[in-house]
Amino acid sequence: MPKTTPYLVSLDIGSSKVCALIAETGKEGRVDVVGKGVATHKGTRKGAIIDVPATVEAIKRATEEAEIMAGVQIERAVVGVSGPTVRSFNSRQVVAVASRSREISRQDIDRALDAARSCPIPSDYEILAVLQRQFVVDGQDGVAAPLGMVGSRLEADVHVVTVPTATTQNLLKCVNEAGVSVTEMVLEPLAASEAVLTPDEKDHGVVLADIGGGTTEIAVWRQGALAHTAVLPIGGDLFTSDLAVMLKTPVPDAERLKKKFGAALAALVTSDETIDVPRTGGQGTQSVARSYMAQILEARAAELFEVLWREATSDVPARELRAGLVLTGGGAALDGMVDAAEQVLGAGIPVRVGSPRGLSGLTDIVSGPEWACAAGLLLVGRSGAASPKGRPAPAGGLFSKLKNSLGKMFTPASAI
Predict the structure, then answer these.
(1) In this structure, what CATH number is given to the domain that contains residue 154?
(2) Is residue 186 domain-shared with residue 248, that is, in the same domain?
(3) How far is CA 18 from the centre of its chain?
């Protein structure tokens, strides 16, 4: 008989695979992982769905594997959203404090937030999330909680994330056709941030880079608030493609060789080591120096980190990112990625690989950086756990339940 304890489900629908996690909620908000599922697929490209049946099938296979491990039936899930079409920007608006005593009330705060998020967006886009950054009271910035303060002018500074309506509708269609209802859609770099970043890193200024198969997703944090988000069309698939082209080997073999022998920095590989590489067309194998393969990967890694850091510092000066760069996602598992990033960015910028934290239960099965997004989606959705036997959440009003899990930074989108 399926378990009836409250549980959470997350779905990370990436460019090369679908990851599903099931977790039980324990005391004091504890999240115990009880099941996981993975299914490779080719239904998306660069974060965009290009083949609905293939994506639906992958979701079914991933969720079924997780269900078997956990002994529950999945009915609803928190789902990650990504892709290069995601657009985000900062908005700041001012209102006059209404009270004669000039004491800021909840109504003043709500009016300021309403003004900040009432910004024009393209007709084919919709707002995915509005994240509170700071308030400004009579020119004094950096105010986190203005309630009860005295002032005549209140400004609200928020970060607005928008996504094409077609993107969310196609994602919703795939998940629903796989037999799962969507309770929340969350921008994937925000979910990954929740799983791998510490509060101190967010306060000191940090860049999170979630390197997936088709894209690299960026979240820049400064003074504890989100300052910038972006999605780059560079991911692990390009590393594999480079190897396939330069070594004249099939893509599946290039992917296998990358994972087993690859390094993002040639200096980490001895010059005398060779690898047998299958030729395209089944024409036998060729002997290739492992250092040559590392040189190919190093060139692509250097490009990635140059583009990534340029994008990350477009709104936030590098000197304000004292916690440096945190790499996560499946691409971060390639040997030498930290060394390659340090070589491009300079020794003064700390770099580390971020793995999921804040979970309990079967944490050994989700300890790698490739699980950061799926783990973060669980943490974002933990305040909305549902019973396996409960009624599925309605598909409408997707964005009405954006929660305060990311450091209590979410402003409910239903108020937009």
Answers:
(1) 3.30.1490.110
(2) no
(3) 14
State pLDDT tens for residues 33-82. 999 999 998 888 777 888 999 999 999 999 999 999 999 999 999 999 98
Which is nearest to 81 in space by CA: 16, 166, 13? 13
Length of the chain: 416
Helix (H, G, I), strand (E, B) or coil at 228: strand
Report yes or no on 413 lying in a domain: no
- pLDDT tens digit sequence for 293-314: 999 999 999 999 999 999 999 9
> What CATH number is associated with residue 266?
3.30.420.40
Rounded CA separation 357/368 (Å): 10
Number of neighbours of residue 210 by Cβ within 10 angstroms: 36
**In a shared domain, residues 294 and 333:** yes
Whether the predicted pLDDT of 396 surpasses 50: no
CA distance 406 to 225: 10
One domain, residues 130 and 59: no
Candidates 293, 295, 303; CA nearest to 216 is 303
Q: How is residue 172 written in tokens?
A: 């919703």
By three-state DSSP, how is residue 107 classified? helix
Overall number of domains in the chain: 3
In terms of phi and psi (left: phi > 0; alpha: psi -120 to 50; beta: otherwise), the region of 91 is beta
Token pair for 111: 């009016």
Range of the domain at 300: 231-352
- Walk across the sheet containing 325-328 and list its strands: 225-232, 216-222, 206-211, 325-328, 351-353
